[in-house]
Design goal:
Layout: E1 4-7, E2 10-13, E3 18-24, E4 34-39, E5 46-51, E6 57-59, E7 67-72, E8 77-82, E9 91-101, E10 104-109, E11 113-118
Parallel strand pairs: 2-11
Antiparallel strand pairs: 1-3, 3-8, 4-5, 4-9, 5-6, 7-8, 9-10, 9-11
């Protein structure tokens, strides 16, 4: 069982920055892709950013040029650096990890961390 614990959310003014962290109970060097989703009130969960085991990244169009995803395998931690925040970035942010177990791949989720951007 893999546990993911997020931190770093909070209240920030528009134009500000936050860095989210997601620390895993296991060695993320053995994980497949990891990433971040977000869910705003009344909206579907949206994929924000993904990073592969090899370090390739992909961001949603809505956050390109503002958000950066990274992973530190030595610290078993996934990050999301969020700059130039906008009120529409307000949401609960969830990290996930895709972990191979034999022939199967399982997705594990963090508990979520609230990000609120005031105008």
């Amino acid at each position: 069982q893999v546990q993911l614990v997020e931190s770093g959310g909070g209240l920030v003014q528009a134009g500000g920055s936050l860095r989210l962290s997601c620390t895993a109970s296991g060695s993320i060097g053995s994980f497949n892709s990891m990433g971040w989703y977000r869910q705003a009130p009344g909206k579907q969960r949206e994929l924000v950013a993904v990073i592969s085991s090899g370090g390739r990244t992909n961001n949603a169009d809505s956050v390109k040029g503002r958000f950066t995803i990274s992973r530190d395998n030595a610290k078993n931690t996934l990050y999301l650096q969020m700059n130039s925040l906008k009120p529409e970035d307000t949401a609960v942010y969830y990290c996930y990890a895709d972990v191979a177990r034999g022939l199967y791949e399982y997705r594990y989720w963090g508990q979520g961390t609230q990000v609120t951007v005031s105008s």
